[in-house]
């Protein structure tokens, strides 16, 4: 069951929510509720994704997937996804009505991606929406329910859209063979590698230039590292190498570091 919930991205998003909650001083009770809600949402999305993709994974022989190998039963994954989704509702609302609604909108976008939108030209939109709402999930739980500054929302949305293009790259041929035709599939591997890198680079630029005041040295350093990783990914052929995918993931990691550091200004004026 753990292997079927997409544990790495689920853990990454949950840890990001925890770091942002700590950065804005949510306090232990509020942060715990936020983290629990995000974790439940991520588990529901991961299990839903594996269950929906079972037919395609069987067709392409994805023996690394627990459902394909027979390690878990489809009914168990379906039940787990629905249970996690049901738990996500009260956990989200426990952090505040506005914060809860923002989080549930993001989870709904992710489910819409799994069930339908991944094979459309707007496949990037659920990623942008869900990531873009994550800072609001944290700040709307603060006293006065402040919205995050525009630059943080924009940076998170760009990061999410870039992660979508990067996430598709390793499996793009299998996806095309089984009828998946999201935007990355329509523009091809090389185009997706370039767009994904540029989106995450734009995210880093928003984090560096968006907040008021002088840009600190670590901001310029991470932005330079981001640009170098994007160039490295663009220099290799996506179909013959995993370099573009790995480079974009490295960029996303640097972006997350900058996002968390800049998150100290999360509830300030935008």
UniProtKB/TrEMBL annotation:
Residues 1-21 form the signal peptide. Keywords: Membrane, Signal, Transmembrane, Transmembrane helix. The keyword Transmembrane helix applies. The chain crosses the membrane at residues 31-49, 70-87, 93-112, 124-144, 150-170, 191-209, 215-233, 245-264. Pfam families: UbiA (PF01040). It is a multi-pass membrane protein. It comes from the Bacteria. It is found in: Membrane. Its main location: membrane. Coiled coil: none annotated. This is UbiA family prenyltransferase. It comes from Streptomyces flavotricini.
